[in-house]
Amino acid sequence: MKKIGLVAAMTAISVSFASASISADTLSTVKKKGYLNCGVSTGLPGFSNPDDKGKWQGLDVDVCRAVAAAALGDEKKVKYIPLTAKERFTALQSGEIDILSRNTTWTLTRDVSLGLNFAGVNYYDGQGFMVSKSLGVKSAKELDGAAVCIQSGTTTELNLADYFRQHGMKYTPVVFDTSDQTVKGFEAGRCDVLTSDQSQLYALKIKLSKPNNAMVLPEIISKEPLGPVVKQGDDKWFNIVKWSLFAMINAEELSLASDNIDAKKKAKNPEVKRFVQSDGPIAKQLGLNQDWAYQVVKQVGNYGESFDRNVGKNSPLNIDRGVNSLWSKGGFMYAPPMR
Amino acid sequence: MPENKHNLATGNVSFWNDPAKRSLVFQAILFLAVFAVGYIIYQNTQHNLESRGITTGFEFLDAEAGFGIIQSLIPYDETHSYGRTFVVGLLNTILVAALGIFFATILGFLIGVARLSHNWLIARIAAVYIEIFRNIPLLLQIFFWYFAVLRLLPGPRQSLELANVAFLNVRGVYLPSPVLGEGFSWVLAALVLALIVIFFIKRWARRRQSETGDQFPVFWASLGVLIGLPFIVFLLSGASLQWEIPELKGFNFRGGLTIIPELSALLIALTIYTAAFIAEIVRSGIESISKGQTEAARALGVSPGKTLQLVIIPQAMRVIIPPLTSQYLNLIKNSSLATAIGYPDLVSVFAGTTLNQTGQAIEVISMTMAVYLTLSLLVSLFMNWYNKRMALVER
To answer: What positions does the domain ABC transmembrane type-1 occupy (chain B) (predicted)?
Structure first.
């Protein structure tokens, strides 16, 4: 009996893997399907969150839209698949999604051992702490003995342990599955501190019933470069995702935006010209249409537009551009030239 | 022995017409087929994993885990290995399953008996209890206890307290924990001695009853010995036990014993839910016993309580045990819903966090499944053994 059970169990696992066996070429499968499967979060304002009409919006969602615009010519041809932190890598490995664009931190382990490729960084983040003001805490160094709400299966969980160990402090981890539950736990007083990437803290803060009672502590305890991820072994697709993101960043640098790119079609500037018309051989090498970069900017906008709309000055989060400014304005955002 | 007869009658039977040999062949073929399919699946998986650059193997179990776990029955901190997180999760699963089975059995029997009570009100209350809790999904019940009930408790600084040693707040129940001093082993020895004494009291009482018919209050005598003997030794050894009382320090209570609300919520939900099913099983068991048994016992002047205890329940157990086993197995498997509220059970800690940090899905999930399979088989093995002992021996 036991043997049969084991065999059945093994079958169950591997069938799920086998059925999603590698299709060497994601681009042609996506074209055949007519849409893109994009793994997003289960709801994080500013990054990937459905609006009141159920339409997905956010900085991470814009990456999905940009890839769809580049690969299929239409930013709307995306199917969004909400995933918890725990589910995301398995979903990508098994081919359930074509891109993972879900505030995922680029780390060495993830890059080398999970069969994944990080296609760039669309937000430079760092881990911070949120506490309720009534606690009277001004610094993370005063948190000895605190109960901390965390989302499970994140780099956050590891950084937290490192930070407290390094400073000789103790903590009680209260681990939840989704960011929603984490906020609920924090609000109910199950924990003193909520820890997450700073951007998420601001996003979660506006979800609180009384956002003004909470504050974010000044310490940033880690580097969290967040960006889209694809499966290893399909370089063509990897390039498409990578360059869709780069196109958005380059567009901002060239002052190409969704509202002016039509006017610039006839521009003299060779760089702009290259961008808008995308020289033939390059587009062909990528496996895309001539106007792929134009479509990205026309339909989704440049990186700055996306930032302002979703997390920046035109959004309720109102996060400062800070290190996410272009390199030419003192930030880290730097895309290789498109030539 | 029909085969032998057949053989004798015909003298010589061809290989294919011999049912015994034929079935052997088919079993061998089936076994080979199953094995081959298993092997192909294994190869295929290995190949796919390799071609995708996903690391395989069990080496990750020795790597440092680096994350904290809120409750562990064995010493654990961030520096321990992923293998250790497996054990921590496993023990937490066993803890909640064992406690759940214990409480659900008691509550289930009480409700089941109450359901058959002649008191209209008691019988109705039991019936309503069963219908309500049997018909609401367990996950909702867990959420209800965790998010709706336990969350109403006050914060650490406004804790409800009992005699300044026990505290209750939204972070859990804080109890004094025993600190064993020197000489406490004598108390434990006394406890063992008390158990042995009780065994002999029981034997002696039974013999006396069968000889003289006099009954001896075995229960009260045993209780007296069980508490009295260790207590006397405890006093003689100079009260070698101290209590560490939880204290409000900084953010929360420190010291003492903590029962986290995740455990409480899960345990309450599992107990109440499973008890409703057990109650119905107990009721059906009792109802399966002929009314004549009760009437006969009553005619002999046996009290209603004793009738239930000595005549009805032992016979009903034969009907009760097999479905009860299923409920125990359900409870064990249902405990994996813990992950929904963050109780650090095997699924949450190992198949959750560890899986996510290492990405070794196949290894982690097979280990987790093997655990549930083993636990279930053990329980089922034990219950089958118990069932055999209780079964009616026909002479």
So the answer is: 90-383
Q: Does the predicted TM-score (pTM) go above 0.80?
A: no
Please state the separation of Cα A190 from the chain's center in Å.
28
Instruction: Kindly report, residue by residue over B97-117, the tens digit of the pLDDT.
Output: 999 999 999 999 999 999 998
Please, which pLDDT band fits residue A196 given cuts at 50, 70 and 90?
Answer: very high
Q: What is the nearest CA distance from B386 to chain A, expressed in angstroms?
A: 20
pLDDT of the residue at A5: 52
Which residues contact residue A237 at a Cβ distance below 8 angstroms, ignoring those fewer than 6 apart? A25, A26, A27, A98, A230, A231
Rounded Cα distance between B261 and B271, Å, is: 15
Using the Cβ of B59 and the Cβ atoms of chain A, whether some distance falls under 8 Å is answered with no
Q: Do B361 and A189 touch (CB under 8 A)?
A: no
In this predicted structure, the answer to whether residue A1 has a pLDDT above a threshold of 60 is no
Q: What are phi and psi of A123, to 5 degrees?
A: -160, 125
Report the relative pairing of strands A123-125 and A224-226 from DSSP bridges.
antiparallel
Q: Give the chain A residue nearest B67 (alpha carbons).
A: A158
ipTM over 0.90: no
* Residues on chain B touching A86 (C-beta within 8 angstroms): 352-353, 355-356
Nearest-CA neighbor of A283 among A275, A274, A292? A292
Q: A75 pairs with which residues across the strands?
A: none
**Residue B148 DSSP symbol:** I
- Residue A278 pLDDT grade (very low, low, confident, very high; cuts 50, 70, 90): low
**Which of A17, A152, A190 lies nearest to residue B171, judging by beta carbons?**
A190
Residues of chain B with C-beta less than 8 angstroms from the C-beta of A13: 45, 362, 365-366
Model pLDDT, residue B277 = 96
Distance from CA of A313 to the nearest CA of B (A): 34
**What is chain B's Cα-based Rg?**
28
Q: Do A233 and B51 touch (CB under 8 A)?
A: yes
Measured between CB atoms, does B54 come within 8 Å of chain A?
Answer: yes
**Chain A residue whose CA is closest to B45:** A14
CB distance B355–A153 less than 8 Å?
A: yes
pLDDT for res A20: 45
Q: Is the pLDDT of residue B334 over 50?
A: yes
B99 CB contacts (<8 Å, ≥6 apart)? B267
On whether any CB of chain A is under 8 Å from the CB of B80, the answer is: no
